[in-house]
Amino acid sequence: MKLASIKPNDLALVVNATLIPLGETLPRGSTMIDLIEQYGSIQDRLKALVASGKGIPLDAQLLKPPIERPSKIYAAAGNYKRGTGGLEAGRGRGSASTISPEELLENIFLKPPSAIAGPEDNIIIPKNAETIFPELELCVVIGQKARHLSKAEAMDAVFGYTIMQDVTARGFGRSKNMSGTRSIRKGFETFAPIGPWIVTRDEIPDPHNLWMKLWINGELKQSAKTDAMINDIATQISFLSQVTTLYPGDLITTGNPDSPEFQEKLKPGDILRSEIEGIGAMNQGVAKES
To answer: Measured between alpha carbons, how far is 234 from 244 in angstroms, rounded to an integer?
Structure first.
């Protein structure tokens, strides 16, 4: 199923070009995290809503971030094989990593939930940070409380998938320690756009076989496939579950294919379109902080 958060304060199923609000399926004021936690017990009611055919036309302006307040957002760094200079190879552009897979896991960092933005929202360029770059990534949504998972168990903790732009202010601040300042440079408000909805795990049988594409002002700027991840999704989840307890609605964004020299600096007025096969697409604008 495709599950969306919609304005002003509701949840909806996405069926083709229709939004089917959940209405009284859950108590008033329920969030996407509530839906994730209760999903197994209400699937029959959700299927009945789909069968009813009652809905409203899908309008991207109605969409909110599918999850607005996760307990945490983990983000992988340097997690693609790269080694090419063209968009057609699908491995990611730039030099291949010389860091071991085990070290890459230890480079996973946190983004604050306050960085979340939604479909059709603007990415805001902060007053004191001018070099802003988007990084399109497949984002995993955790579906259950999980701790100390093996790799074999890890995928059972996945609820579904969504799209994230891991936006970064690459030239911000005085520090030259780029890896050490990731949580700051990538933590500004609006620097974690997600959406357009969540696709449940059963609809994406192989999350390591998806094309990801990013257009800026109509020009293709990123094109890569998720099979080029160095540490796969199960490895990331298992590792993080050794560090801390994962909760329903937690987000793990799995890495950007292109190295910095192949990324496009954003400027006010830009329009981004992010698309991942099997999930959908969302748009963001870019504006300067007033």
So the answer is: 15
Q: What are the structural domains of the chain?
A: 2-62 (no CATH), 73-288 (3.90.850.10)
- Name the residue among 185, 28, 193 with its Cα closest to residue 11: 28
What is this structure's pTM?
0.95
CB distance 133 to 265 below 8 Å: yes
Which DSSP letter does residue 264 get? P
Q: What is the pLDDT of residues 242-254, one digit of tens each?
A: 999 999 999 999 9
- Establish how many alpha carbons lie within 13 A of residue 227's alpha carbon, considering only the half-sphere containing its beta carbon: 7
Residue 150 structure tokens: 């093996």
Torsion on CA atoms 234, 116, 179, 126, rounded to nearest 10: 160
pLDDT in tens, 33-61: 999 999 999 999 999 999 988 899 999 99
Q: What is the C-alpha to C-alpha distance for residues 128 and 134, in angstroms, rounded to an integer?
A: 17
**CA 258 from chain center: how many Å?**
16
